[in-house]
Every structure is written in C-alpha cells, then in structure tokens.
Amino acid sequence: MFNAAAKDVRVNERNMKLHGALDDRFRTPAPGDPNTLNLGGRYVLNHFPEDAPWNFVAVGRGHDTAYWADFLDALAKIDPDPVNIEHEDTELGQLEGLQTSAATLLAAAEDLTSP
User: Fold this and answer.
1) In the chain, which stretches have pLDDT less than 70?
2) Per 3-state DSSP, what percentage of the chain is helix, strand, and coil (rounded to 5)?
3) E strand or H helix at 10, and its extent?
C-alpha cells in the first residue's frame, strides 16, 4: 500500500432523511467569490448546503476512537506506516483540526498496543 488517508465524516441524521447521501445542492463558487477556497490550480472547494446531510470533520468528530483503532488495525495487517490526515473540517482551523485528528489517531494506536 502506498498511502492511506484518515478522513472523517459526520452524518446529520435529520438532513440525511430530507436530502439523502447524494445531495445535489452543493454549489461551485462564482468567479471572484471572496469565500472561495482554492485547492490548487483551477480546483476550488464547493460550498456545502447549510443543512447538509453530512460534513467532513476532523478525525474523531465523526467516528470514535474505537472506529479508528479498527481502521489502524486493518492497515497494520498490510503496511502500518502510510497514514496521513486529510483535514477538511470547516468548523476548525488548520492547526486545531490537525491536532484533533492526530490526538484521535494516537489514542487509537495506543488502544492497539495496550494489553
């Protein structure tokens, strides 16, 4: 395995029932929109609907440590090293999101090594 990404999602149950997992209300920002987040080159982050059925969140804000311990355990059976954090939680700043994710993954890894 070359790479594995730790990326979490929070499901908003009420909105999921209303709009479904394949909600098509995401929109591409208009050129010049000051709230546009450039992802590199010509790619930009679409705007989520305010009442989205799901949101990307920092690792641990969607699934608990036990879930991530299972994730790391499955990876360890193949190659334990290549885990990177994908931070797309718009509610947290860059540093806070990475700290939250790293703390969750470290706790999950510790759960695997504890007797």
Assistant:
1) 80, 115
2) 35, 20, 50
3) strand 8-11
Whole-model pTM: value is 0.81
41-62 pLDDT, tens digit per residue, is: 888 888 889 899 999 999 999 9
Question: CA-to-CA distance for 21 and 28, rounded, in angstroms?
Answer: 18
User: Measured between alpha carbons, how far is 76 from 62 in angstroms, rounded to an integer?
Assistant: 22
Rg (CA), the chain: 16
Instruction: Answer whether 52's CB lies under 8 Å from 15's CB.
Output: yes
Distance from CA of residue 110 to its chain's centroid? Answer: 21
Q: Which two tokens stand for residue 46?
A: 């679409």
Pick the closest to residue 100 from 4, 30, 17, 7 (CA basis). 7
